[in-house]
Each structure stands twice: as C-alpha cells, then as structure tokens.
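Worked example

This section walks through a single chain of length 121. The input is the sequence exactly as stored; nothing has been trimmed or padded.
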Amino acid sequence: MAAYGGGVYYLSSLSRLTVPGRIPDYILHAAEYAGLTLLILRALNGGFARRIPGPLHLAGIGLAVLYAISDELHQLHVLRRTASLKDVLSDTLGAFLAVGLAELIQRAGRRRLARRSAGEA
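Given that input, the structure is written out below as tokens.
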C-alpha cells in the first residue's frame, strides 16, 4: 500500500504526465484510486478472507479521499500542475467503486471455498 501511494505521489510530482491512447483523465483517476482503496481495505481488514464490515468501507474511502486531497494540494507546488476538484471527485468515485469490487472479490472467494468444501464432503 505504501509503495502504491508512493507511486501516486511520484506521478503527481511530474511536471508533465502523458498517457498513451485516448483514455480520459477522469477514468485514469478513478482506476488509480480504486486500486489504492482496495489496498487500504485489504490492509485495514487483514486481507479479503474475512467479510469487510461497513465502518471499514467508510474508513477506506475516507483515507483514499484524504490522500486524493493531499495529492491535489501537493500538485499546487509542482511546476505546470494545478489542483482540481474534478480530480478529487474522480478519485472519490474510484474509492466507492473499490468497495463494490472488494465485495465481488470476497463473494468469489466464498464461492470458491464452498466448492472446495463440497468437493471434500
């Protein structure tokens, strides 16, 4: 999680960031912060094996959004970069999407475990 956060910080430190292709910026932001939020949720929950309680979902989203805000503030001090509310909103969307993705990951894991248990019985 720390390495991922460091990567986000590094990318924010670049004066010019070019991405090949025509992927809209808001999609990239949402994907970036969905990944960060998944890592935060996994760390807070001690993995994905146990069900993630609702308060941890909120904590994961909150931490990701706080990091998004700090990232935008950091960009105020980088040459040719600006802070953007749109970016924070895209990052927040990614954090919310990560909660749904974590639920899908957990459901798939429970199904796999149930199949394994049924095969042993």
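What to look for: Residues 45 and 70 are 24 Å apart (CA to CA).
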